[in-house]
Design a protein that fits this description.
transmembrane; about 0% strand; 10 helices; mainly alpha; Probable membrane transporter protein
């Protein structure tokens, strides 16, 4: 078993799921560029998906009473279609092209957050489209969170239920993605074995994220997060 891969996996999972626990999304956007230093894109997606399964079980249990179940139900079919399409692309496309696409996607998201002055208002059909696109990017990169953010914000305005509903949406996507990745051959037993070794690091990230969440300065944290995402996007492109 490659020690270098284990070290990079531990670093990626710690920072990714520390952020995920704090704000309810963006774990993949942080973890994926770090993982790509050591493994190929399909392997990185497999590892992240496994830890999203662990994270979802813990966070959904903790936040169940704050989750908007109607939104989860409404996104279920569109997410299923999107995830399946995304995994087909992941399985049969060239990793270099996909990595460049991921870098562009991250930079576009950062630009949207920084420049967007008005909140995006989605109609019913547009909301369905965002559900498919969110599922697609979740299947390809495990990074559909930003698209789901735009969709969920349409119906949930307060911070606490918004964070909880985002956790629920990503849990739904994970439940779809894990079987699809296994059937396609992207996720295998070796990924599971290595993930179990790193599990204590994941638990530490969850613990710290949960403890720090009530005390954090949200504005400053988002600025640091956007800066790190910008660096990640540029690194993937160049």
């Amino acid at each position: 078993m490659d020690i270098y891969i284990l070290v990079i996996l531990g670093i990626a999972i710690f920072f990714g799921f520390f952020v995920q626990t704090l704000i309810g999304f963006a774990g993949s956007l942080i973890a994926l560029p770090i993982l790509l230093l050591a493994v190929k894109l399909p392997d990185a997606i497999a590892f992240i998906s496994i830890f999203y399964l662990f994270s979802s079980a813990f966070m959904v249990y903790k936040e169940w009473h704050n989750i908007n179940k109607d939104i989860i139900l409404g996104l279920s079919i569109t997410s299923l279609v999107g995830v399946i399409l995304g995994i087909i692309v992941l399985t049969y496309s060239k990793p270099v092209i996909l990595q460049t696409g991921l870098g562009i996607f991250i930079l576009l998201y950062v630009a949207y957050v920084l420049i967007g002055k008005t909140e995006v208002v989605l109609g019913r059909k547009t909301n369905w489209a965002f559900g498919v696109m969110g599922g697609f990017f979740s299947g390809v990169f495990s990074t559909g969170g930003p698209l789901y953010v735009i969709s969920v914000k349409n119906s949930v305005k307060e911070a606490k239920p918004f964070r909880a509903t985002m956790i629920g949406v990503l849990a739904l996507v994970t439940l779809i993605r894990i079987p699809a990745l296994s059937i396609s051959g992207v996720l295998n037993l070796e990924h599971v074995k290595m993930s179990l070794i790193i599990l204590p690091v994941f638990f530490l990230a969850q613990f710290l994220g949960t403890k720090i969440f009530p005390k954090i300065n949200e504005v400053q944290f988002k600025k640091v997060l956007l800066f790190l995402l910008c660096l990640s996007g540029l690194a993937l492109i160049f």
